[in-house]
Amino acid sequence: MPNAKIIPIHGDDPIVPRLVADLEPDVMARLMEFWEFVQRRLAGDYSVDDFGFDPEFNDKVLMALVRPLYKSWFRVEASGLENVPDQTGALVVANHSGVIAFDAVMTQLALLDEHPAHRHLRMLGSDLVFQSPFLGEIARKAGHTLACHPDAERLLGDGEIVGVWPEGYKGIGKPFAERYKLQRFGRGGFVAAALRTKTPIIPTAIVGAEETYPMIANATVVARLLGLPYFPITPTFPLLGPLGLIPLPSKWFIHFGEPIHTDQFPENAADDPMLVFDLTDQVREQIQQTLYRLLMQRTSVFG
Amino acid sequence: MGRIVLVTGVSRYLGGQIARILAKDPSIDQVIGVDVIPPKVKLSQMQFVRADIRNPVIAKVLGEAGVDTVVHMGVIATPRQAGGRATMKEINVIGTMQLLAACQRTPSVKALVVKSSASVYGSGPKDPAMFTEEMQPRHTPRSGWAKDSVEVEGFVRGFARRRPDVAVTTLRFANIIGPGIDTAMTTYFSLPVIPTVLGFDARLQFIHEDDGLEFIKRAVLGSYAGTFNVAGSGILMLSQAIRRTGHKRVSLPEFLFMPVGRSISSAGLIDFTTEQVRYLTFGRVLDTSLAQTTFGHTPMYSTPQAFASFLARREVSVA
């Protein structure tokens, strides 16, 4: 081929230098940092706390996965963050709704991203969570533990922010018609834990989660077969299959309310059932009132 | 008058080690080691009595020597060490019964130290994040070493009631690991491909063998009555520990894990009992503050450091 062109491998070609220039120095540094992170993770060179909480994995992987949901899908507006302490322990008590516990994850992210001290929310979950494969594993890595007195008191005593959803499955598995009506608040175990550790209770109201999966019926037979507390039927699930799992993009508000202080009560206050019931009611009432107030202010579900 | 200490299970690693350490201590006059088989390594400064603790002969040994402290290290963790599960159970349960019966009859006995295991707490999804000594198991162990340990502790409690003048110390150890000891755990982490249960990541806790021996020694010398959790500080996740070994990990669904585990186990490689599998699924963590304040000693090795010490041995042996 006498007429073959000669293609220069180096020299004038403008593309290569431009790529290198683009990469330097910021992107290169970030790539290197990411590479080191991957290497360190693969070598097992990181530490977890006694509960199995892996802060690095939680902040850099798990929370990064749900952040788009928080920012773009639900467009969460968090308020009252000044009511959550910077250093000391507190018990965040919130309403529970929306079939899948997205509300809990969004509250966790609100405290991590928007609180000035970037607090980690350590939630108390049911034993069903910890006996389910994958779910239990991820929950531990995200810092959550079993809802029981010793764990709650240990975390609060260590100065952590602990999250409880006292309505439990009654809350997330309730029909759409009952939205924003607080269910029964368990046995008030969370109040006793706060009293014993003298930590404040922060009643928290979440608006928007109810509309993510409007549950029109509960297939109790299927639920029993699968060993689940409920099996939701929504307008899209199971009708559209996996597509029905996409939550509706409702607009969310999370308000951390005025703290209820527990340090003015006497030493054995946690053993006084009457006081525990009263406090439980006070927390429930405060959350319910805040829910009504937020609902009044809301102009549209998807606004 | 110096003290006379009897140690059971001296032909196995920890028993031999503690007998050697105690024999060196100036406050102890004599150490008598008991086991069914003679020790592999020569134990100097120590009298060895070849006896079966399942046999009433042990009472004679205790009485004639005027033993004042009994260190019970004779609880066997794996069927492989005993030559079958039936023998293992007999050594653990009947052996402890006989030993304690002999102790009860011997007025010179003033202290009893029992090496127990954290496996008495069982493991499962309903467990609190950390166990303190007074907590009851939420998932009672139903098989193997864990069940034996529960029974052994039951006998020990019974003995403590019948002989209130004896200071009884029960040490519940997390998995003991280190450069010298061989356990089901060290075998497991030495497998070239390590099986785990899919979808679960257990929280593990280890105690270095030197720290374990230190606590037993302190229990003998100081006589602290009670039950204590002993473990290195901090935890390792199972996945994290495997990454640190540099071995491959294969995750099997729960229903496949047991049959696969058993087939490896029948090949003589490792002991996969139901309790062991539950531990590798859910893990278990101990609150060790009571032992640390009572004994005035914090383990020198944290859980990750103890594991690193075990890994270091392996690298040396490979090289």
Query: What Rg of chain A is obtained from the alpha carbons, in whole angstroms?
Result: 24 Å
End-to-end Cα distance of chain B:
49 Å
Count every beta strand of chain A, where a strand is a DSSP E run of 2 or more residues: 9
CATH superfamily of one domain in chain B: NAD(P)-binding Rossmann-like Domain
Report the count of strand segments of chain B. 13
Biggest interface pair, residues each?
A-B, 29 and 30 residues
Radius of gyration of chain B (CA) equals 19 Å
Order of helices and strands of chain A: HHHEEHEHHEHEHHEEHEEH
Spans of chain B of at least 5 consecutive residues whose pLDDT stays below 50 are: none
> How many strands, what sense, and barrel or not for the largest sheet of chain A?
7 strands, mixed
CATH topology of one domain in chain B: Rossmann fold
Class from helix and strand fractions of chain B? alpha/beta
* Main structural class of chain A: alpha/beta
Termini separation of chain A (Å)?
68 Å
Pfam families (chain B): Epimerase
InterPro entries (chain B): Epimerase_deHydtase, Lipid_A_modif_metabolic_enz, NAD(P)-bd_dom_sf
GO molecular function (chain A): acyltransferase activity
Pfam families (chain A): Acyltransferase
Describe the structure.
The complex is a heterodimer of chains A (303) and B (319). Chain A has 2 domains: 38 residues; 209 residues, no CATH class. Helix content of chain A is 41%, strand content 11%. Chain A contains 11 helices and 9 strands. The radius of gyration of chain A is 24 Å and the shape is globular. Chain B has a domain of 219 residues: 3-Layer(aba) Sandwich (Rossmann fold). Helix content of chain B is 44%, strand content 19%. Chain B contains 12 helices and 13 strands. A 7-stranded parallel beta sheet of chain B has the order 3-2-1-4-5-6-11, sandwiched between helices. The model of chain B has no long low-confidence stretch (mean pLDDT 90). Classes of the chains: A alpha/beta (303), B alpha/beta (319). Chain B: Pfam families: Epimerase.
